[in-house]
Design brief:
single chain, mainly beta, 18-stranded antiparallel barrel, two-stranded antiparallel ribbon, globular
């Protein structure tokens, strides 16, 4: 009888803790949700419901009442009572977890241990990541989050070639090439750090080093999370059915000679982003996007004076001041229509160069742009958390480039929008399913693009090369060395601890890239003990 009372008491305490946690989250409108495609799919039924008026196209999310119930369910999936401290920490809880009336705090040790085999090339791969995540709230208006990773890896060949060419791990950090030469194995570290303050439920101010993503798709032709974490200040305000975001970021370029020893000596540039998302109804939303890239120095490496126009909060007016000629300016639009409950059509268009007089003539460099069209659905066939996405993306050659290399739409040489840069067409499909502690995901991609046959060529795909205006410039998608990419990937994961996504994961990847000069294939099988919520792209 005493054991029954003890068991019921423990259950009551667990329930009370969950109620306290939910109550704190409902008050704290600034709680940060790390951007992870696999994690965010679990909220699709909530945010794409015809009953929801959520702003779905600006990520990372802040946890609000729309996803709060599902978030609580996801963070407690499969949890049962554990008698030992070690059992609770391994399967149920954060390593450190404090919940007080005035504040909360949690911290976890993060690991990514993975081994793999590329059967086409008879080579082994591995990944060894040690890291942490921590977060919490102070009162009901302030929250913080940070994660850090120290990594070493031996990558599959195509990925390693990219790292050696760019000297950068995609979306993460510098590859430490100690002798300055290409490496067969890589070593790097990187950090995310965010301070978030919501003085009211309608306004949020975020400061730190993080990524942003604009759109409802898997890719974005406006702003994606493919590039590295950027130092940023972001303000987000809700005005009735309108959400307005303005962000300033300080970014760098690896491809030009250094001009000082400050901040790692790389040439630097400022980035300004405006985005307005208008929920016309619970089914229809329309967004307007504006980005501006401005170098910190002139061609003689002299720092420019401060241009007050750079902090202009008004959409589309940031490049109209006296410094407009030196800036690279982008305009874009985003739209979504829920054609059925939990099913949405979505699309984007990005304008780089624009000349109305010959906009419809097609093959000219006066007009460079990209666009996206897709459909996504949740709980298909009435199966909870069975989701799909189909998407088409295309970008004309030379889009995102500038006459000056430093003005390109890149950070550390990685694209700020689509990973393929420009001069491509792509179709992709993703199916994922979560049941209990299991996560399943399958993905297929096909892309056609035009590479540069030699280092001296510039057919418009490599957006780190400067654009040289010429009467010979053409913008036929696929021009250059015509190349096809076939990509397929599948993963099966069993979640050990949902609080920091600790899981066993089995993965398989097939990639083929072929053109007149080469035909490379990779068939990779991986297995590992992995954790953290983050997007790491390999499908390029």
């Amino acid at each position: 009888m005493q054991n029954i009372y003890s068991l019921n008491l423990r259950k009551a305490l667990i329930a009370a803790a969950c109620i306290l946690f939910t109550a704190q989250l409902s008050k704290a409108q600034s709680v940060y949700l790390p951007n992870s495609y696999q994690l965010y799919q679990k909220f699709n039924a909530d945010i794409y419901s015809v009953k929801s008026s959520s702003h779905t196209s600006l990520r990372p999310f802040l946890i609000d009442s729309t996803i709060l119930h599902t978030y609580d369910s996801v963070m407690n999936v499969g949890i049962r009572e554990r008698k030992t401290w070690g059992g609770r920490k391994l399967f149920n809880e954060h390593l450190f977890d404090v919940k007080d009336k005035g504040y909360t705090f949690y911290a976890d040790y993060i690991t990514d241990l993975q081994v793999g085999r590329d059967f086409n090339n008879s080579k082994s791969t591995n990944l060894n990541t040690r890291g942490f995540q921590l977060g919490g709230t102070v009162g009901d208006k302030f929250s913080f989050y940070s994660s850090g990773f120290e990594n070493s890896a031996k990558f599959v060949s195509y990925y390693n070639d990219y790292v050696n060419d760019h000297r950068f791990i995609p979306g993460q950090a510098y590859a430490r090439h100690y002798n300055g030469q290409p490496q067969n194995s890589q070593d790097w570290s990187y950090v995310t750090a965010i301070l978030s303050y919501s003085p009211t439920q309608k306004l949020n101010i975020t400061l730190g080093e993080d990524k942003m993503f604009i759109g409802d798709g898997y890719r974005s032709v406006l702003l994606s999370d493919f590039a590295s974490n950027m130092p940023l200040l972001r303000l987000t305000a809700d005005l009735g059915p309108v959400r307005y975001m303005i962000a300033w970021a300080y970014i760098q370029d690896l491809r030009q000679p250094p001009y000082d020893t400050f901040f790692g000596s790389n040439p630097r540039k400022w980035a300004l982003f405006h985005y307005i998302d208008w929920n016309i109804s619970k089914r229809v939303s329309f967004g307007m996007f504006n980005a501006l890239i401005t170098p910190e120095t002139d061609d003689q490496a002299k720092k420019r004076g401060f241009d007050a126009n750079f902090v202009n909060p008004v959409l589309f007016t940031s490049s109209l001041g006296p410094g407009g000629g030196k800036d690279n300016v982008f305009l874009g639009f985003n739209a979504k229509y829920k054609i059925l409950d939990k099913t949405a059509l979505y699309g984007q268009i990005m304008f780089d160069r624009f000349k109305g007089s010959n906009f419809f003539s097609g093959n000219n460099a006066d007009n460079t742009n990209g666009w996206q069209l897709g459909i996504r659905g949740a709980d298909i066939f009435k199966v909870k958390r069975l989701n799909y996405l189909f998407e088409y993306n295309t970008v004309k050659p030379y889009t995102y480039t500038d006459t000056k290399l430093i003005g390109s739409y890149t950070f550390y040489g990685d694209a700020l929008a689509h990973p393929l840069g420009a001069n491509f067409r792509e179709v992709l499909g993703i199916l994922n399913y979560s049941v209990g502690r299991f996560d399943f995901q399958g993905q297929i991609n096909y892309a056609k693009y035009g590479l540069d046959a030699t280092k001296n060529d510039n057919f418009g795909m490599d957006i780190t090369k400067p654009f040289v205006p010429s009467a010979n410039n053409t913008t036929t998608v696929g021009q250059g060395l015509s190349t096809q990419l076939y990509y397929g990937e599948g993963t099966v994961a069993y979640i050990l601890n949902p609080k920091y996504n600790l899981r066993f994961e089995l993965g398989a990847l097939y990639r083929q890239e072929k053109n007149a000069q080469k035909d490379t294939k990779n068939t990779l099988i991986t297995f590992g003990l992995r954790s953290s919520f983050r997007n790491l792209y390999h499908d390029f």
